Amino acid sequence: MALLEIRFYSRVLELSMGANIILPERQDAWAEPPAVLYLLHGLSGDHTSWIRRSCIERYVMDYNLVVVMPDAHKSFYCDMAHGSDYWKLFAEELPERIQQWFRVSNDWKKTFVAGSSMGGYGAMKLALGRPDLFSHAASLSGALDIASHIHDDWNDTKLRTFRAVFDAVGSVPGSGNDLLHQIQRMETLPETEFFVCCGTDDWLYPDSVKFRDIATEKGLRLTYEESAGAHDWSYWDARIQRVLDWLPIEKLEA
User: Fold this and answer.
1) Fewest Cβ atoms closer than 10 Å to its Cβ: which of 7, 48, 99, 233?
2) How far is it, in rounded angstroms, from Cα 124 to Cα 102?
3) Cα 247 to chain centroid, rounded
4) Euclidean distance between CA atoms 144 and 146, whole angstroms
């Protein structure tokens, strides 16, 4: 197994960016090129978070899977109102670069996205906006109902972040950044499979419940799970193993 930390220049952002990438063990053992999982970090994290705080490298040892863990700063994986076009980076530029640089599958059925907290929001936003690119998307304790948080008691740092990404705090409801609104207004349902999980002690638990209810009513292909747990790495480290089991990835037999 190889763990790479790369630096690359993003033409979209006009900025040097970082990413950690896990390459599968024994590539000669696989008949097909590996699937790709884009694994996204939360608001206070970076491209090292999943490597430093979870055992993801060990969990994927027997999978034919490349895991791409990019830096998103505090962008919410959006084209920021007062900043850079991170949505375009993750929805267009980065997947194209990964295809160029690594021997990975170009099959839609083998391209996945998942993330925790802000990364859960980003995973769902990317999957809803690019159903042609991501066949499976998973949210772990995701901030899935951003519109409901516009009147939260943000500290100054978070308030500046929120305004930089979304502009005025009241601009989210009914916009393209409102995931629940996006689902409700869908005319054609995507073939994408969605997975949502959250701990019942998590402050974002109501977001996952509301996403579940609206997605189920709309008829999305959704797997929903909840259990005891808080907004922390103990929960995410356990649940990412469940996500890996859920994904359709080739696995070496024992």
Assistant:
1) 7
2) 25
3) 14
4) 6
